[in-house]
Specification:
Keywords: Signal. This is Hemin ABC transporter substrate-binding protein. With 302 residues, the protein is α/β, with parallel strands linked by helices. The chain has two domains: 153 residues, Rossmann fold; 119 residues, 3-Layer(aba) Sandwich (Rossmann fold), CATH 3.40.50. It is 38% helix and 17% strand. It contains 14 helices and twelve strands. Strands 7, 8, 9, 10, 11 and 12 form a six-stranded mixed sheet that branches. The longest helix is centred in the middle third of the chain and has 20 residues. The two termini are 41 Å apart.
Length: 302
């Protein structure tokens, strides 16, 4: 259930009074702990933006504080009962503020920038959580969310548990010598492959699961030429399930550039739920294990 799907202008009854707040807004911004981490003065009504943020709040047992979530927050199932303020990269300030929050906990990359800038200028405390696609990045998110909600001790316990699980998951492929070259395909547009380069969640997961990103030379997501796909020589194609328009197997393996690579012969395609695969949250150790087993089968050790 969507509170405000996408409102047009950042004006009107909600934003008129809040943008004008100056000293009051500053006074209500998050306080800083001794280590510089932000803390909500009143965490009673929090909007969580970013699927991993919502998962961490639930994993800490602090879901009672949530009054809304964004559309990427689909796990755990109970989160779906919360009002939906929209897609994290297409937020409306009116939609976020409509649930009368006492704080906003947003994953880095939330947007658009104009909407986030407006939210940061209101009287509602806004804490942005960094996103690093790594083992340590997950632990950092847990600690920041825990600090923000005033449950540092619980966050440290969870961080240690996840640290142990992630370490074990990464060790499962330590003895594998022939690493699979993986092409993460986000979509196909006009017959061209949109693939994941470095500094992406897909690149981080591929490495944690013992694979090699077949794509080199750029960061983020980029449309690749046929020649670049052939040069990448992928052994496996990795895609998200439950995320936007589906690319059929026939469309994928019928692509001339794909057909000219090892994966075009082997037809090795792995589809995993996008939030589970790329969330970099409490479930990531399990996702690493599942991806590793899909890649290497019986070579994965416990």
């Amino acid at each position: 259930m969507s509170v405000f799907p996408r409102l047009s202008a950042v004006r009107g009854s909600i934003l008129g009074p809040v943008i004008g707040l100056s000293m009051a807004a500053i006074a209500l911004q998050p306080a800083s702990a001794a280590d510089g981490t932000a803390v909500f003065a009143d965490p009673s009504k929090i909007v969580a933006i970013g699927g991993s943020i919502t998962e961490i709040v639930y994993a800490l047992g602090q879901e009672k504080h949530l009054v809304a979530r964004d559309s990427t927050s689909r796990f755990p199932k109970a989160a779906l009962e919360l009002p939906d303020v929209g897609y994290m990269r297409a937020l409306s300030p009116e939609g976020v503020l409509s649930v009368d929050p006492t704080g906003i906990l947003a994953l880095h990359g939330s947007g658009p920038k104009e909407a986030v800038d407006v939210l940061k200028k209101t009287s509602v405390p806004f804490i942005e959580v960094p996103e690093h696609y790594s083992h340590e990045g997950i632990l950092e998110k847990v600690r920041i969310v825990g600090k923000a909600l005033g449950v540092d001790a619980k966050a440290e316990v969870l961080a240690k548990e996840l640290d142990a699980k992630l370490t074990a998951a990464e060790k499962q492929t330590a003895s594998i010598k022939e690493r699979k070259r993986i092409l993460f395909v986000l979509s196909i547009q006009g017959g061209k492959i949109l693939a994941a380069g470095s500094e992406t969640a897909a690149d981080g997961m591929v490495k944690l699961a013992g694979g090699v990103n077949a794509v080199e030379g750029f960061s983020g997501y980029k449309q690749m030429s046929d020649e670049a796909i052939i040069t990448a020589r992928p052994d496996v194609i990795l895609m998200m399930s439950n995320a936007g328009p589906t690319v059929s197997d026939d469309e994928l393996f019928g692509n001339p550039s794909i057909a000219s690579t090892p994966v075009g012969t082997a037809h090795k395609l792995i589809r995993i739920d996008g939030a589970y695969l790329l969330g970099f949250g409490p479930r990531t150790a399990d996702a690493i294990h599942d991806l590793a087993v899909s890649l290497y089968g019986g070579q994965v050790t416990d």
